[in-house]
Specification:
155 residues; alpha+beta; Methyltransferase, Cobalt-precorrin-4 Transmethylase, Domain 2
Length: 155
């Protein structure tokens, strides 16, 4: 039996949960890692997530939550000022909230940002904008999941 998943099964892919169940039931398994969308889609769009002159750190963040509402419990003050490049997965529906929280916690509204929709696929679309215009761009361009949001000077 194969459970095929695009990207890295352990990064926002429930691979860890699935392995726990298999192990608990004595089912042997093998994990074959892949390239996560945040890395693959950004590279395919020509956006490096790190750059010696622009960003020495990157954070991969979930843009929604499984329980307790649709917004994950994020320490915005740390992300806004402490990480060079931010990559949000599954954040299209919360783009306005993501933008507002980051700006409120000190990330400049003029920070470059990008939506990458259908990353690495023939129908990939990339929209370059700013953090302050993130929600407006999402609505104007009708960005739909699957998409990632990249925020930082590397854009």
């Amino acid at each position: 039996m194969v459970r095929l998943k695009g990207g890295d099964p352990f990064l926002f892919g429930r691979g860890g949960e699935e392995c726990e169940v298999l192990k608990a039931h004595g089912v042997p398994f093998e994990v074959v890692p892949g390239i996560t969308a945040g890395l693959g889609a950004a590279a395919y769009a020509g956006i490096p997530l790190t750059h010696r002159a622009l960003a020495s750190s990157v954070a991969l963040i979930t843009g929604h939550c499984m329980t307790g509402g649709s917004r994950p419990p994020i320490r915005w003050e740390h992300l806004a000022k402490g990480v060079g490049t931010l990559v949000f997965y599954m954040g299209v529906t919360n783009a306005a909230h993501i933008s507002e929280e980051l700006v409120q916690h000190g990330r400049p509204a003029k920070t470059p940002a990008a939506f990458i929709e259908w990353g690495t696929k023939p129908n990939q679309r990339t929209f370059i904008t700013t953090l302050g215009a993130l929600a407006e761009t999402c609505e104007k361009e009708q960005v739909k999941p699957p998409a990632i949001i990249v925020i930082g000077e590397v854009v």
